[in-house]
From TrEMBL:
Species per Swiss-Prot/TrEMBL record: Vecturithrix granuli
Family of the protein in this entry: Belongs to the ABC transporter superfamily. AI-2 autoinducer porter (TC 3.A.1.2.8) family.
PROSITE patterns: ABC_TRANSPORTER_2, HIS_KIN
Name recorded for this polypeptide: histidine kinase
Chain spans, region Disordered: 611-634
Basic and acidic residues: compositionally biased ranges: 616-634
EC supergroup of this enzyme: transferase
Keyword set, alphabetical order: ATP-binding, Kinase, Nucleotide-binding, Phosphoprotein, Transferase
Amino acid sequence: MSTVSSHTLFTLHNISVNYGEFRALRQINLTLENAEIHAIVGEHGAGKSSLGLMLNGILQPSVGTISFEGKEYAALTVTTALKLGIRMIYQQVRLYDQFTVAENLFLSNNRINRFLWSTKKRFLSAANDLLNRYRFDIDPKTLVQNLHVSDQTVIEILKHIQHHPKLLILDEALERLSAPVLNKVLNMLTELRQAGTSILVITHRIDDIYHLADRVSILKNGEILLTDHIKNIDKIHLIKMAYTQISAEEHLENLNQEFYQLLKYNEAILRNLPVNLIVTDTENRIKMINDHCKRYFNLHDSSYFNVPLNQVFSSPNPEILNFLNKALHEKEGKTFYQAPITFHNHPLISNLKMFPIHDETFLIGKIIIIEDVTEYDQLQKQVMLSEKLASVGLLAAGVAHEINNPLGIVYNYLSHIKYNFQGQELHEAIDRVHEEISSIANIVSHLHTFSDKKQGEKEELDINEIIQRILNLIKHHAKSQQICIHFTPCETELLIRANRNEIKQVLLNLFKNSFEAMPSGGEIFINTRILQEHGTPLVQIRFQDTGPGINDDNPMNIFLPFYSTKKGNEQNLGLGLSVSYGIIKKYHGAISVQNIENAGCQFVINFPQATSQSDESGRETEFFRKDPVSDTHE
């Protein structure tokens, strides 16, 4: 039997482990001291987990021996490992989902569970003591399946350390912890080491190694390349040896500096790409948000590192979240076009592109690119609506012409019958038919107006003045319907060139639409202003009511002819807003509508601003200078 130091917990002598013909570990020689935290690092497939499983008795070495506290073993079994005080936390959480936190902690503890299935009170008391000791705010009555994976990992660690193990093996368990929990666990592991427990930490978290470990071993292709005290090896050299190919150029000077520059160069590329880019790990925790994305979405927090993606990213469409989860496991990149998402409370329409990141054959994370296409989506909808209206306009003009001719003939024949034949009942019947023909003529006139692309007689109009005149006209009707109208005009004249009657028709249609949407009363808010868009001055009218909004996934559909949300109202033909849309387009304007959360809907109209030709363009009348509150009509 070989002689070992009294300070040595275990020694591995020429250990090799095979999976069939594949050799996972090759001639491993490793010593772990009592009360030592020893880190094992290396890329995927290097043999790190195989080392832990061999010490835990799950894998049997094909060659070599294990000395544990001076006693030599050809191999360990799971039972032997437990008796020796070896405990292991695996890569995947191994708890009973249907049991509570308290039950998972103490079902296997003979000291607490003195009798099979001891009382719940005993379990809860012991669990509370253990959780409070390490300052974890977890309810011991909670089912494990309802915990976040970070808290599940904490429970698994606590389950093992309450047995006071001599050797605790953590196989990439730190990677599952959220940032606040990680700090508590690192402190807990330090306390364990001080109490005499040795800890073998298998991890990719290089920064944590330098805060926690005493020594580190680098595994590569199943072999130990280096074992040294953590203070003797710099971080860049550690990363280079663990995760890159060793250079064959022995004469290459300043290898560390060049490798460091390469890492910084790659990071700089990602951070400075002119796209909204996010890097996450396999558990959808954010590892990086590039600078462009932070500026675009006003992300002012100092760090989003390890924050779950769903804390800043959501979508009203569950298909998009399913897409992200499924795309994570794809070998190739995937794209979801025109997806409605909310990122950092910022709603937008986006093209989402996801690219998996692989370390050789192992998936280690993904890159998400958020391309904001909100403006493009709105323009596309505007174009589609214009094309629909243009097609319907041609049809409407033809239908109106074809109806008017026979309608005029029928009207003339009825007049002839009325004045050439006697009989009160006959005359009453003819008058009723005349009324119905007048209704048909009214519909046809709407069709003519909708399809008429000719511009009426244009003049310079002050939008503020037109709105005020309409308010004076409808204020009594608004009061009778308990509708309060608030008008906040721009302090300067807002001049456009258009036909006065057509612009009045547009505004009256908006009022009529709001009045019908609020039969029990409500409020209307109107404000006007001048804005610049691509260097062009525009006159803007914002018209908002507190009605129920538009019950349609695409509110722009209300501009389609004969579309109406007022079911059962036979007087409503669904042409008013279509006619308004056509008038606004005739004068090179634009109109859009959107639902306002808990506040009805809002119309926004933009017209090109006209430059006044008169000497009175700069006048400021007393009406437009008064306080906006006095422009409230009730």
